[in-house]
Task: structure prediction
Amino acid sequence: MKFSNEMIKPVIGKMYKEEVEILSFNINENKDGTLGEIYLISGECKTSAEKLNYDIALKIQKKWSRFGDPESWLREKNIYESELVQEIGELLPKAILIEEKDDKIWIWMEKAEGNHDRNLSVRDYGRIASEIGRLHGKFIDNLPTYSWLSDKYWIVKTINIWSGDAVNWLKDNEILSKECTSNLLDAWENREEHIDFLLSMAKTLCHRDLTPGNVFVGDKVSIIDWDSAGIGIIGEDIADLFAEALVYYDFDIYKAFDLEQTLITNYYKSLRDYGIKLEDIKKVFKLYLLLNWSYRIICISTRSDEATTKRYVKILEYISSRND
Result:
């Protein structure tokens, strides 16, 4: 990607709401994006009155079709152009300019800053859970009705994607403990009852890709990558965040209980005024891990090296131990 003063000038001008002269720019490409390109752009500009520094991000979302959700590549743009941008508030980095070019969406936005990825502390996770709880509370009695949001049957789709091979593997495995295997198979046998319970819970707007890599904790909490967002159930986002931290971000498995308690406690504190029961959040958290994550972990463990597989076994043992 080649950048120029002419490309950046209208974006910075819109950000400062006046004509600017671009004096310098530096470009760093963020290689973490798997479905698009992310560039961090910083430099100096001159307005009519002074010289100013700028620090922004550009996300280029390419057209692609997620299984069962073909329009997801447009969802973040749709959110920015809807009333949800006000309701989500500071959790969503401000968009400066949105452009459509050659089946790609260009979103120029403020740069999210703060602790991030593997640098998040347990305290940071607590702040995230509090903010997610506040966000979810806004929508419990006021669900958005946009047709482009992902739907409440997301969990059913993901279970169907991962469960077939995983359940067959479980029946013959010699790696997991007998208790773990029994608990995971029991969850599968009773999946319809569990899913009915989950779908009976209060609905809200969920991020649905709440990973440590998508969250920044600084002066405020910022969350990026909203292309999976949709109508979900209370508790699913914090369960996802917990599992993502353990499975993909090397969070210490021996601190998993502390992380779980921190997430649930802070999330509940933000939701208790909405009539949500703590025991329901705990049950959603437990069942979501069992149904939406255990089978996925089994599938990816069969393609992993020995050390990684051992780690996944510990995670599965932990998840299954919550089945009480």
Q: What stands out?
A: The two ends are 53 Å apart (CA to CA). The first strand starts at residue 21 and ends at 30. The beta strands are 21-30, 36-46, 51-62, 95-101, 104-110, 115-116, 203-206, 215-217, 221-223, 230-233. The chain has two domains: 5-110, 115-321.
